[in-house]
Write a structure and sequence with these properties.
The complex is a heterodimer of chains A (114) and B (109). Chain A contains no helices and eleven strands. By secondary structure, chain A is an all-beta fold. In chain A, the strands form two sheets. In chain A, strands 2, 4, 5, 6, 9, 10 and 11 form a seven-stranded mixed β-sheet that branches. A four-stranded antiparallel β-sheet of chain A has the order 1-3-8-7, with no helix packed on it. Chain B has no helices and eleven strands. Chains A and B meet through strand 5 and strand 10 of A and strand 4, strand 5, strand 9 and strand 10 of B.
Chain lengths: 114, 109
């Protein structure tokens, strides 16, 4: 009964490829997020999304795009992967964007681009 | 924008008390969180402060001073399993948590 689950856990791919990471939450939360954690453990917000609004961190390249088929899913699609995209990507959810989290995190996807 | 500062690394002895500080500058403030992250794992929620003062939860306590843009996480009776990164996060006007770089705590015997 995992609350926030993401797949795959590990992803190794070559530069230039397109890949997707899936995320699902069974908590009934309204808001989902994608964070990137670099090698120095710095967690940076990439996207915040609920059924009304997508908020994009302006520093995120447009090669990254979130896709939400329904309220329980927020997948991350990455085009033309680059070496610098190597990181751990965390999906998270929270009850409602105006009630203050806490965030519930998935276990992360370690992406390695070679 | 938001700027969050915390020490990069701290060491402490098993059984001792350690205080991890966090200072922040933000346009708008709604709340401050502390998360614990063990190596190779996801961050897990520890505490949430909205109002000034101390919130105590077992061995862990968190303090907030909004006027000073300052918080600390206090860990008592340290155990080896407390070795982890401790992340301070702030929500401003957008309600999206912004994280500091984290403090790596090493507890030794």
């Amino acid at each position: 009964d995992t609350a926030v689950s993401q797949t795959p856990k590990y992803l190794v791919t070559q530069m230039g490829n397109d890949k997707s990471i899936k995320c699902e939450q069974n908590l009934g939360h309204d808001t989902m997020y994608w964070y990137k954690q670099d090698s120095k453990k710095f967690l940076k917000i990439m996207f915040s999304y609920n059924n009304k609004e997508l908020i994009i961190n302006e520093t995120v390249p447009n090669r990254f795009s979130p896709k939400s088929p329904d309220k329980a899913h927020l997948n991350l699609h990455i085009n033309s992967l680059e070496l610098g995209d190597s990181a751990v990507y965390f999906c998270a959810s929270s009850p409602r964007d105006r009630e203050g989290p806490p965030l519930h995190f998935g276990n992360g996807t370690r992406l390695t681009v070679t | 924008g938001q700027n969050i500062d915390q020490p990069t690394e701290m060491t402490a002895t098993e059984g001792a008390i350690v205080q991890i500080n966090c200072t922040y500058q933000t346009s708008g403030f709604n709340g401050l969180f502390w998360y614990q992250q063990h190596a190779g794992e996801a961050p897990t929620f520890l505490s949430y402060n909205v109002l000034d003062g101390l919130e105590e939860k077992g061995r862990f306590s968190s303090f907030l001073s909004r006027s000073k843009g300052y918080s600390y996480l206090l860990l008592k009776e340290l155990q080896m399993k407390d070795s982890a990164s401790y992340l301070c996060a702030v929500t401003g006007g957008s309600y999206i948590p912004t994280f500091g770089r984290g403090t790596s705590l090493i507890v030794h015997p």
